[in-house]
Amino acid sequence: MVTTAPKNSPRPKLPNGVRIYAIADIHGCAHLLEQMFAVIDADMANSRPYRAIEVFLGDYIDRGPDSRHTLDLLIQRSRRRNTVFLKGNHEAYFTSVLEDPARATEWFQFGGIQTMMSYGVSAAPGLSKDEQADLVRELTSVMPPEHIAFLRQLRPTFTCGDFFFVHAGVRPGIPLSEQRESDLLWIRDEFLQSKRRFGKYVVHGHTPVRQAELLENRANIDTGAYATGNLTLLSIQGNSMLAI
Fold it and tell me: Out of the domains of life, which is the source (predicted)?
């Protein structure tokens, strides 16, 4: 599905020569990510932008079938492309579980079981909290150190031109420079229901929609990949946006 940007107001714009490819909420769907990489590569080979930036909006892990391979693909991509990796609420929660394995119970309900399985660590039902914490320690021992480093080094936001990239959204009425990380990673209703401008055009994920929404003040590109099989790619150049 292709959706073009709204036309009823002045369009946000990137600096001349910059093209951004944005992807949100991969959730362990490595096979879909590989497909999007192929689309990006073909587009770049065909049009050769002066400067391309690939921006990933967080939630790389949990729920889907292959978090491990997803992180492998992203890390490999970072070695040969200009990439920006933002933090999602799933990465924030997972890194907190690594620090405190006693928090594993909620993470397991949050999609963590699938992440563990992708690393070859399986959990039987009915485990005690202590047994769940032991599984997290086992997971930590088998995870590649570069995966843990990647998850701990994620940034909360990225700004380019008139665009502000973030995982979940922003709290209306608060300057972008003063936003709390908890809102950047978790906010929903207050942000989604707001019709006001936020200082920049916000590109986000976090709340699944049937197809990408390119609205007057924000774009939501989380199309629920792990549940729908649809991972959306947003291409931005100048004042043009295209969601595929």
Answer: Bacteria
Please name which of 195, 184, 243 lies closest in space to residue 217, comparing C-alpha atoms: 195
- Mean pLDDT across the chain, nearest whole number? 95
Q: What six digits make up the tokens of 118?
A: 């992708």
Query: Cβ(24)–Cβ(57) under 8 Å?
Result: yes
Residue holding tokens 């390119």?
214
- Domain 18-243 sits in CATH at 3.60.21.10
Res 124: pLDDT = 79
Q: Which residues of 135-164 are buried (b: 16+ CB within 10 A; e: fewer)?
A: bbebbeeebeeebeebbeebebbbebbbbb
Residue 4 confidence (pLDDT) above 70: no
Q: How confident is the model at residue 8 (pLDDT cuts 50, 70, 90)?
A: low
Domain residues of the chain, as ranges?
Answer: 18-243
Evaluate if residue 142 carries a pLDDT over 70.
yes
Q: Which residues contact 15 (CB under 8 A, 6 or more apart)?
A: 160, 161
